[in-house]
Amino acid sequence: MGQRAVFLDRDGTVNRQVGYPNHVSRLHVYPFTAEAIRKLNDRGIPVIVVTNQSGVARGLYPESVVHETNARLEEELAGGGAKIDAIYYCPHHPTAGDAPTACDCRKPETGMADRAAREHDIDLARSFLVGDSPSDIELARRAGMRSVLVLTGYGLGEVTYRRELWESEPDCISENLNTAVDWILSRIDKENDQ
Ligand SMILES: [Mg+2]
Question: Is 114 a catalytic residue?
Answer without folding.
Answer: no
